[in-house]
Amino acid sequence: MKKKIAFLLAAGCIGASAASVNYDLLGRKGSKMKSPMVYKNVDYSKIKKNESQKQGSSLKNRSLARASNSHSPGLRDDIEALEGVFNNRSNLLYSNASYPYYLKAWYAANNYSDYVFRGLTSQQGLPGYLNVANAFFLPVPLERHEPTGLHYGVTTNVPSSAYQLTRSNYSFNNTTQPSPYSYSQYGNTDMITYMPFSNVENDAKRWSIWWYDNPPSGSFEWDDVGIYMSIDALPAKLDPSKSVPYLRLASGEIFEPTPQTEMLSSRTYNILKGATKRSVIFVGSEFPVLPEDHPLNPDHRSPLIYMGVRNRQYGNVDNETSKIYGFKSMVVDNGVFESRLVEIVAAGNYNVRANSGHLGLEAHAANAITVGAVDANSKKMASYNSNQSMYCTLGLNRCNDGNHLRRGSKKPEIYNYSHFYFNKRNNNSEYQNYYNDEKRVYKDRSSGIDYTFNPYYDGSEMAAAYTGALVANLLSANPFYRWHPEVVKALLLSSGHVDINTPYPLNEPATTKIPSYQKMMSDKDHNEYFHESRYWLGSMERLHTHKSGPNNSKKEIRFSVKRPTDKSSFTAAIAWLSSGFDILNTGRVPYDFDLYVYENSSDNVNNINVDNYLARSIDGDNSFEVKEFTTYANYITFRILLWDDYTPSDSEYRGNIALGFDVASNY
Questions:
Q1: Minimum mean pLDDT among 41-55, 121-135, 319-333: which range?
Q2: What whole-number distance in Å separates Cα of residue 274 and Cα of residue 251?
Q3: Residue 232: CB partners within 8 Å, gap ≥ 6?
Q4: Contact 366, 409 (CB under 8 A)
Q5: How confident is the model over 531-563, as pLDDT tens digits?
Q6: 67 closest CA partner among 32, 25, 17
Q7: Tell me: the pLDDT tens digits for 253-287?
Q8: Is the four-CA dihedral 432, 525, 633, 101 of positive or negative sign?
Q9: 77: exposed, middle or buried (C-beta count within 10 Å: 0-12, 13-18, 19+)?
Q10: Cys staple from 514: which of 2, 488, 498, 625, with CB 3.0 to 4.6 Å?
């Protein structure tokens, strides 16, 4: 019997005789969103944090159908499938291979058009890659109720009736202050050494990307990137000499901040602005996860929002339900799947709370890029990093007893720096982004308890914010990666550069290297590292190139990459997206792709023995595969095999994929 998605709502949320009214997952009444995340007579704004755990009514047989022709995740309705290629050395196996971008689109009307986009702008009568890509995808509109002016953070957003705020200068001379978290590193009591942010960026070798720091004048290749923050408090000034410019995503929101949530929001904002060159921050308690009926003109520069950072306080809920893929995870997965935005989520800091270690509520999301923390000084993983995600095989909130659980996709996929601080080193323009933060003390007026926050950036939330800044710079510099969270995850996995020191505090991690600017940020003018990235979106029937296995039951994609003559060591990765509904319905990531690598003397993808592979990655649980290998062959042939498809037969997304690939040289 087919499993049904059980959304357990609080009693009384659905009235038996209520009139038919649409609500979306953000609780907006009268929604016209064309999405499976719109339900009749279900007001999700009334569901409290833990209320969805209660036994109550469910959606039962309510329609989840999306008003779309193609059912392709995040694509315009008339597009059935899309694939694209970027090669920073222009070794594409197509005509006019001196250009780095290639894109092919299949239209839903039983015919297809084959396009080669040779550059970002129109050339030789062909439209530019950036213009066409923006037209194919459905940008999320910005709800600009107050669109013209910037809002500025004030001294504090904490209600004065609850807290009294004091500020004092803080010396950075002693960088061995104890962490604000009460944990010991690796079983000892050593104090953590905090590093200035300039050292952290030097580890990432941002100084080497001269083509980004000095972009061509007048070229829109170097767009501002819109970043949204899902927050519980508005960011405030941490440096008294700085304003906090940001755009509110929607008006009418009521924040009830605490010192903890305000500091978390402020620090996240500080990193995003201090570590990016071209970013605009939009803030709100929630983000419109899907495009509405009136999408923006693709040429409109708002800027478009390409990514989000979720450093939410409620992500750090320490109870049994939060240890399992649940409602919040599903919302994130569906948002990424439909809107095509990159989502960065902090893994969680649960050993801080005397817990054995588990992921935050949103960090289980398979489509998100979940980030763990590494001590910037010792290069060791922080002891509070969390474990692999867990999925319930019986549906939402039916495994509270700990039974019927299976391992989910390994989390966190990415690790990045924590334990650092911003410092304004001098008045040179080179260091204008480094802040002079101050200690902040909140005194509870009723209890007299002080909440003191030193100007240090600690925890997986800060590692997630720094990863968000790194990705924002990537999206600004290279438009190919916009709208492609699956490719960005593959790129981060293949771009591990700085080794993480052992021992690891928990199980073997997904990766043991931190991605760097130097290895990630490569384009046609910067060829120190080689990259080829690809994506396949939409109908697998359109996109697969071969069949294999008994009775040709297995579908696969094959392609060849010409090996750069000066490179022999590589890392390849694939990552794919899934509907959150399908994950809940199956209790696992529905698709199981495997990655195979072959040496080849030519670009002929049929010129391989499928059993004579050079390397392979065939994990059965993850939503990604990653593998290092060495070869001196003229060509590398990749084989991406769809090993199994657990997507429910009644899912509108069955037979449709969102798959990303990147291969990068290791030097």
A1: 41-55
A2: 26
A3: 255, 257, 261, 264, 265, 285, 312, 313, 314
A4: yes
A5: 999 999 999 999 999 999 999 999 999 999 999
A6: 32
A7: 677 888 888 899 999 999 998 888 778 888 887 76
A8: positive
A9: middle
A10: 498
